[in-house]
Amino acid sequence: MLKRIWSYKTKKLFRAEKLYTAKNYKTFIEVFKKNFPDYIYYCPLRKKELITAPLNLIDEVFVPKDCLKYLRKIGDPDSLQTKALNLIDMLSETSDVGLDDFGMHGSIALNMHSPESDIDFVVYGSENFRKIEKSIAELVNSGKLVYLFSNRLDKARKFQGRYKNKIFMYNAARKPHEIETEYGLTRFTPIAPVKFQCTVIDDSEAIFRPATYKIKNYKSLELISDLQIDKVPNRVISNIGCYRNIARKESEIKVAGNLERVEIINTGEIYYQVVVGTATSEEEYIWPM
């Protein structure tokens, strides 16, 4: 039951990405310490407390791909379920992305939806996601879909729209072969907050969460952000969802985040990155220019 409460209630808290600040993160930590202490984990590789679910307390995992398969087996889907299936069928047909590379999440996946709920779906694989992006743009141009923008970041991401008077949102998930990291192999050491401007040189992992932008041409925006050449970061990592997919290759971005030293434990290799969404500052962001 706790898992289901976590999925439903905290989703509302974290959906407002701007609330993910140092002050609120400390509040979340204290609330969980008091009420759900088993869900607090001290990470020795990051030297900080995290909110996470212990494996032995997870009763059920809702996999988006499986949720969509289950939805297709329903004999008499309701109006919202029917629209969700029709939308995915249309996108699959127009993009040439197979139905097996889609998944359903959110309230529909949990069978907790109401007539007012949104359609939340996922696309597996970076190449497939880019195909869906292109397909949605074409369907918008033809009048079959409509983009919904509430701010500058929404306009950059183009992740939200309307289909037959129903809001839909979509995100990307890695396929197994795209997962290149493993917990326990890397150690992270925070150094200091920095503000800078840079050029994106690789956006292939900017669609995932955390989002990764590989960068060049680091240019500090304040004196305290001037760095020695060996500490200049080669990537920006965003733990905040609203900064996914907001900049493309060769575009310029402004960043405020925390400089980290990254050590590959087995090899001793060291590099530097900037993380946005550390919950250590009230001002962390990525802005497209």
User: CATH superfamily of the largest domain, called what?
Assistant: Beta Polymerase, domain 2
**How would you sum up the major sheet?**
5 strands, mixed
Mind telling me the C-alpha Rg?
20 Å
Give, in order, the helices and strands. Answer: HHEEHHEHEHEHEEEEEEEE
General form:
globular
CATH arch. level architecture of the largest domain:
2-Layer Sandwich
- The top-level CATH class of the largest domain is Alpha Beta
Number of helices: 7
Strand content: 25-35%
Regions with little confidence, pLDDT below 50 for 5+ residues: 1-19
Taken together, the total number of domains comes to 3
Helix content: 25-40%
Q: pLDDT average, as an integer? A: 91
What is the SS-derived class? alpha+beta
Instruction: Give the tally of β-strands.
Output: 13
Structure write-up:
- The protein has three domains: 2-57, no CATH class; 64-176, Beta Polymerase, domain 2 (2-Layer Sandwich), CATH 3.30.460; 186-288, OB fold (Dihydrolipoamide Acetyltransferase, E2P) (Beta Barrel), CATH 2.40.50.
- It has 289 residues and is α+β, with helices and mostly antiparallel strands.
- Strands 3-4-7-6-5 form a five-stranded mixed β-sheet. A five-stranded mixed barrel has the order 8-9-10-12-11. Strands 1-2 form a two-stranded antiparallel sheet.
- It is 28% helix and 31% strand.
- It starts with a helix and ends with a strand.
- It has helices spanning 2-15, 22-35, 64-73, 79-95, 106-109, 126-141, 152-157, and strands at residues 40-43, 48-51, 102-105, 119-124, 146-147, 160-163, 166-173, 186-205, 211-220, 235-238, 252-264, 270-276, 285-288.
